[in-house]
Amino acid sequence: MAKKKLSDSLVKELAEEVKEWGSMKQTGVSLKHMMNFGGSSKNLLISAQFVHKELPIRIARRVIELENLPYGLSSKNAVLQVRDWYLDSFRDLRSYPEIKDKNDDLKFTQMVKMIKVRHNNVVPMMALGVKQLKKERPQFDYKDLKEVHQFLDRFYLSRIGIRMLIGQHVALHDPNPLPNCVGYIHTKMSPLEVVRDASEDARSICLREYGSAPEVNIYGDPNLTFPYVPSHLHMMVFELVKNSARAVQERFMDSDDDAPPIRIIVAGGLEDVTIKA
Question: Structure pTM?
């Protein structure tokens, strides 16, 4: 049976609740703010209460956007499936009672872990939805569909924020956290170490694909540290080096000249850190 639009398939009360929460202003959260949630049962309770209030706002906004996409993208089965995942999560969060004590927090934490798992396949499912649209409308030049690209940029950025909120809250409950870690956040992360690990991972992909890979030379202060999420930086640097290695390898594949090394510079400023390849 074909899936229907939200307004057609759900009771009016739920549709209005999604609209109400989607109109609320979401709260920006800094890494510093997230780090303050760790360290005590009281802080964990505050974290749970914040996530309980904040997630429905962010998720409702995504439901509304998924209902109003251009070019008929909202009606594609894959996109409707994604919408239903978000809607199920909205229901779960809104039906969960007020969090008052440690037991409430622990039960809530298990629930949001399941929500995170439910959304694991959102990215490939959205890609499938776009593919379904392309198949139905081959006359479209999708490079020019600015509205779709803008939506996907917003959607994926929001998804990162939602998963970060959930993942950070869940990680705060780890009974054996790594040294200098508050949830996902490493308070003394060395960008050089992360860049080195990500570069080696990217070179391994290149070696497997082409049989060889350019060297990666990394420059920067080995004593530089700052609070950040290592997995996020690893992912960004990995993609950067992977693309650079592929470009260098393909450029010099049939050349008598040796492939030049990839140079990565990590520079710390007064208020920021720049990583350049």
Answer: 0.85
